[in-house]
Prior knowledge:
The structure holds four protein chains of four kinds. By secondary structure, chain A is mainly α. Chain A is 70% helix and 0% strand. In chain A, helix 1 packs across helix 2 (80-115) and helix 3 runs antiparallel to helix 5 (151-178). The radius of gyration of chain A is 22 Å and the shape is elongated. Chain D is α/β, with parallel strands linked by helices. Helix content of chain D is 42%, strand content 23%. Chain D has helices at 51-58, 84-90, 102-105, 112-124, 128-141, 147-152, 160-173, 190-207, 218-224, 242-247, 252-268, and strands spanning 12-21, 26-35, 40-44, 66-74, 77-78, 95-98, 178-182, 210-215, 227-232, 235-241. In chain D, the strands form two sheets. Chain D has a six-stranded mixed beta sheet with strand order 6-7-8-3-9-10, sandwiched between helices. Classes of the chains: A mainly alpha, B alpha+beta, C mainly alpha, D alpha/beta.
Amino acid sequence: xxxxxxxxxxxxxxxxxxxxxxxxxxxxxxxxxxxxxxxxxxxxxxxxxxxxxxxxxxxxxxxxxxxxxxxxxxxxxxxxxxxxxxxxxxxxxxxxxxxxxxxxxxxxxxxxxxxxxxxxxxxxxxxxxxxxxxxxxxxxxxxxxxxxxxxxxxxxxxxxxxxxxxxxxxxxxxxxxxxxxxxxxxxxxxxxxxxxxxxxxxxxxxxxxxxxxxxxxxxxxxxxxxxxxxxxxxxxxxxxxxxxxxxxxxxxxxxxxxxxxxxxxxxxxxxxxxxxxxxxxxxxxxxxxxxxx
Amino acid sequence: xxxxxxxxxxxxxxxxxxxxxxxxxxxxxxxxxxxxxxxxxxxxxxxxxxxxxxxxxxxxxxxxxxxxxxxxxxxxxxxxxxxxxxxxxxxxxxxxxxxxxxxxxxxxxxxxxxxxxxxxxxxxxxxxxxxxxxxxxxxxxxxxxxxxxxxxxxxxxxxxxxxxxxxxxxxxxxxxxxxxxxxxxxxxxxxxxxxxxxxxxxxxxxxxxxxxxxxxxxxxxxxxxxxxxxxxxxxxxxxxxxxxxxxxxxxxxxxxxxxxxxxxxxxxxxxxxxxxxxxxxxxxxxxxxxxxxxxxxxxxxxxxxxxxxxxxxxxxxxxxxxxxxxxxxxxxxxxxxxxxxxxxxxxxxxxxxxxxxxxxxxxxxxxxxxxxxxxxxxxxxxxxxxxxxxxxxxxxxxxxxxxxxxxxxxxxxxxxxxxxxxxxxxxxxxxxxxxxxxxxxxxxxxxxxxxxxxxxxxxxxxxxxxxxxxxxxxxxxxxxxxxxxxxxxxxxxxxxxxxxxxxxxxxxx
Amino acid sequence: xxxxxxxxxxxxxxxxxxxxxxxxxxxxxxxxxxxxxxxxxxxxxxxxxxxxxxxxxxxxxxxxxxxxxxxxxxxxxxxxxxxxxxxxxxxxxxxxxxxxxxxxxxxxxxxxxxxxxxxxxxxxxxxxxxxxxxxxxxxxxxxxxxxxxxxxxxxxxxxxxxxxxxxxxxxxxxxxxxxxxxxxxxxxxxxxxxxxxxxxxxxxxxxxxxxxxxxxxxxxxxxxxxxxxxxxxxxxxxxxxxxxxxxxxxxxxxxxxxxxxxxxxxxxxxxxxxxxxxxxxxxxxxxxxxxxxxxxxxxxxxxxxxxxxxxxxxxxxxxxx
Amino acid sequence: xxxxxxxxxxxxxxxxxxxxxxxxxxxxxxxxxxxxxxxxxxxxxxxxxxxxxxxxxxxxxxxxxxxxxxxxxxxxxxxxxxxxxxxxxxxxxxxxxxxxxxxxxxxxxxxxxxxxxxxxxxxxxxxxxxxxxxxxxxxxxxxxxxxxxxxxxxxxxxxxxxxxxxxxxxxxxxxxxxxxxxxxxxxxxxxxxxxxxxxxxxxxxxxxxxxxxxxxxxxxxxxxxxxxxxxxxxxxxxxxxxxxxxxxxxxxxxxxxxxxxxxxxxxxxxxxxx
Lengths: 293, 509, 321, 274
């Protein structure tokens, strides 16, 4: 099962065979970065300043904009903008946390699996395949059931579920590198394994890995929103966007702002990181770089 | 049985919340027939009832849950007595009953001409079987402990049942209203039924709906509609959407005020504000520091503005209570003035208790609404008197293990759904650990009282004493909101203890 | 091929057996007491113990496991702790909702994504090619439950064209109603699934468009449509099929959220309930059936790929998935 | 190779061919050359010099994002700016290509026989058994052993040299007036390279086909061509008969190339006397 004929699900190998114009490429990256930065800014500002206290329920129930509430209030009279800002923080936290776990566990597992041979190799590959077919959300539900519904559990759960995806990718990438001659040369010349990994393997796989992790970030944000929507994410009163949407569902028609704003921000963040991933792939991925004239 | 007899348990119905905290909790409920006396109605109508509480199975002694009570109690199964929607106990299958002088022997005469859905005639053997089923070793009935006073059941003839108690129990007849009379020969009671009610089960599709058909051989007045279908939803929004799109005609119990605006402003719907028995409690562990100190409990109670909390959770709905007793219980007294909101007083009490600088405690908060909201609110209120609250969000399952079984908590939030549940304060082993010899004695005496007046008198004392001791902080009484299509009339408004009688519901054509 | 089939089937069975052990062990490692779901306030310790005994959760784990395996081999998925009803029929009933939902969404997504993905690749330099790619970018980023909320608000609450949720009690005996109640959920899943499929189809098409063999064919005089038909379609389908397999499997299992939004009595909602109540037999049953489905879908995808791609024929599990 | 109604001018007439990317980089700059009927021209330059793009521009197969200007007349047909339909008619018939990388140039999912049959059927209109026989003949002509086995094989099942022969067979199956060989031996083992060159040489000679031979390797080009054009950074730096260029290179760049090739030559003794 080396060198799959099929693309890895995670890295859509958009090999624009032709030289995409640099301008265009940087436009993608730029657009992605600005969208992501917008949300990151919200999250960062929320650390030092919020329009209202998060627990401040002094606003009127589902009030419209005004009275210091730029976007109005939610059903408990909390400021919507405040909630959106803390929500941004949770989303970014969820994304970063999950990806960190996925990277750590996934790369370790993937590298180990790549060195496996024979039936062990087949079994590991098959196991990862089965695991991947189970949606992140489902695995996360189990983890959350085992621990309790906190942001930490959600991040752990999502990160672990994603590490299977990362492990599979890394395994394939590493196998690809291992097949190259200079690795064989390094091995026969007696270079130690950790050295080989550090000196030859990681430098070769990191561009693809980084692009993939960026995509995983977006998926993690969506998964956290899904978990929160099901009541399994950051517990109330934390203003996770998913939870805000769940709460605003009942008042969708009467007070649409609360049911639209978190969704829009979610889309902005995920589109943003996906564009960043696309842009990065075009600039980093050796597969595409090689094809350029 | 003993002290705690007359309460029926069930914190949230029974099953620990079916879904992962989709925000559903159990509801409580009043009783008795709905509103309006419709002029003409469709006698062959199908009434679609929307609910959040699906039965786990159809046997209320095998963990059927709150949903089975809602769908089957009074509709499919009947007891010797029934609890009306306004909380009165009336005779149903019992034609008559006599109590011996010592209050230990109850003799019931059964109504004539009562038939089970299978066609068999009701006999005293069925009553004995049904009572024994509740008391059986593997019974998961929430009423089991209440009925354990039963020492002997005799059936002198086909129409007479004689029950002997081990000690007096004034709530015995009330408790009997929860005992379904089931055909002693019936089988597969988890998926089928054989009761005597005005409806028989047509079909139960798990995860979706349960439908009831009018029973032609019913002994009393026939149901006012031909078919009643309970549609089950896991999420309040989905349920409200169903009502808005006419997929259901009535919602048994709204769990948040969110959607009410759109129903109130629409003449096609009627929003009914009934009496509930569900109380939201900030339950202290009275055996854990610092809540061992009455003054600390009083201070916390006085530091929280219940009115504002109720307003923010329920909009204009719901009531304030000063104790465990809802207005529908016979021993109700308005005690909202006891430990009322007063920050100055709270500070003074804390000072007296030696906590002038405040303290901090962990609040175990179930992860579904309204608990987290209430916790947030309490946190911000108590901060004003120097008390720091650490909110620890837990699942219903954890709540049972950590709080209910292991008593490993300092304070918790929980909703208590049932009526007449003041008596738990007489049980020093209950999870909140309130232990007052006097109260325990009063509760025991009340249960063994000869007259309801005597019982009421004693429980009023319990009520006042627990309120003054701030045994818990009773934050508010939930509203019981039934929203129905304006075509409907005759539906229950209070849904006491989760019952929802469908047989009087009339639907205009 | 016959030998391959045998080996592949054996592999499938071994995987299933392994999965069932893992499942069982993992579930028992979860903290929480299934008896809690049966408990109510006022329940005495004896009553709790009786509940535990009646569901068998007080027995030693190996015994529980062999019991479960024994049931499994006779096709029985066990009995729910909470409802005391058999799990098998329950799962079957839920599959009646989830399988049509997933398959319909899948077919719709493929029907939309394949042409759109192709156009998005072929015409990527035109404005509508860019718009199509942009739409798929958006589609990937939209949370499925939010999309559901919006569709319900627009098509059920405002327009009143379709039900807002639920599934008829008579199920497929009321075909018109059943179909109506699945329209919005199917569209919801198909849009989200389609959006990501578009990207895969687009990228597979780009690979083909940039491939040397396509250039060879055209350099030797084949017209573009002819070359795409002869060479492009098959080559592009290999990666897409492997994605389709994964998408189908994960949608089947991942319908939880959509089922929740649309109040559908599907497999996902059964699982969610089971997890919340620590109802191991239900969770085990659902996950076991799901694992089986995942393995079978993987098997089918491997088989199809193997038929198309001769390079995979030397391997046990097609390199694809 | 029955000479078609040959137009008066040269078979291939390139004037001022310029290839630019959309973002304005010039990859081939004002290139002009001709190839007469039966003539063999070598196009030489290191990678990135624009030689491969030139071959693609000759057939109107430039990738997206690049445009050609100037004039390319192939057998009297103007290629630059021509509609796809006209290009399709010209490709294969007037000029066919053998690409550098035989593994990717062949459809990995299609048996060799069917791949050869495709252009063959287009030219001859043969079907069924006749077509199959023709395919076998085509394989035999490129000196492939076991032609039936090869016809039944997938690209990954045969060696690189065999694949390149199949690619050559496909190109020859079109019976083009001009064969464009784009680094046809670069991907092959050195030992196979010589055989391949020899085969190519023989086959085109037999058919009196014109050849445009593209390579970075002066030694290889010298073996099969009469005239060379040296490309650097998209510009022609030198043009002339092979012997002249090799023995007396004018441009500094060409001198470097020749020196490089000499070294190789002495090391491998690859070059056969012409």
